[in-house]
Amino acid sequence: MPERKKVLLRLDPAVHDAVARWAGDELRSTNAQIEFLLRRALSQAGRLPRDTGGMPRRGRPPKESPGSEEGDRTGTLDE
């Protein structure tokens, strides 16, 4: 994944608080919520570049499925 751009963004405190509350309701960081909203606005306006990657996955990695190599341990400690 290419390096992410860093941007200084000045917001009205009331707007920031509203975005932060919305982000909390959707279990996102404020930064991730702002990126989500910008991507959605660009997409709706037909301006989202085709080569744009998906939203980065954050947080805890998904659990392994029971049939995967990690979860397929049949040995016991007594062996």
UniProtKB/TrEMBL annotation:
Q: Say which domain of life the source belongs to.
A: Bacteria
Q: Which GO terms describe its biological process?
A: regulation of DNA-templated transcription
Q: Which InterPro entries match?
A: Arc_rbn_hlx_hlx, Ribbon_hlx_hlx
Basic and acidic residues bias: start-end ranges = 70-79
Q: Where is this region: Disordered?
A: 43-79
In Swiss-Prot or TrEMBL terms, this protein is called: Arc-like DNA binding dprotein
- Organism listed in the record: Actinophytocola oryzae
